[in-house]
From TrEMBL:
Keywords: Hydrolase, Thiamine biosynthesis. This is Aminopyrimidine aminohydrolase. Residues 10-212 form the Thiaminase-2/PQQC domain. It is an enzyme of class 3 (hydrolase). One of its GO terms (cellular component) is cytosol. Belongs to the TenA family. It comes from Leuconostoc carnosum (strain JB16).
Amino acid sequence: MSFSQDLLTRAQPTMDAIMVHPFLKAIAEGNVPDDVLNYYVEQDEHYLKDYLTITALAVTQTDNHEDIAKLLDVAQFIGNESKAHEVMLGITGHQVENWRRGPETLLYVNHMYESAYRGTYADTLAALLPCAWSYEVMGRELVAAGANNEQNPLKEWIELYAPNDDSKSYTIWRFEALDREVAKLTPQQQEHVAQTFLLSLEMEWRFWEAAWVQEKWQFNI
């Protein structure tokens, strides 16, 4: 069993929990409360800016030409995710106001920055990977369940993340790159990479949860 295959086995319980989260169920039914959508978009705007920065850091950590080309393509896709936000804001009529980063958003991006600055290239890949992987799983399963029906106002949002031949190849590349990089590491370092991935995946669940419960800081500053 490869490193990534074992990692996905370990990650499955968390992914299962994401798929049954009330936010995801509401997306499938097309009835997410407006304040939840607004919170999600505001926080995701912050998150994606940091994700883009960390993707750029990953480019500086490798001399593999294919990886560099793929990472640059990833950066371009991140720019396209504004379409997903437009779908949600079109439902609520909300305008992005650059709210303060929420507690879970800050915790998540700090985890990714620490992985990129203090870890190996494999750690950076592992920190970034759960976002892309979990959204692909989510898109595929929601489409398979028929959630992208014409009555669902989030149909376009769901289909943006549903895998096609191109996006599928990118997921394969991400895990292949991770397998290649961890082969250079000691068992202890490999386990650190695994923990980096699993923590990012838990932070994905927490990101959904934070929007659903409207998590706020205790004090205004």
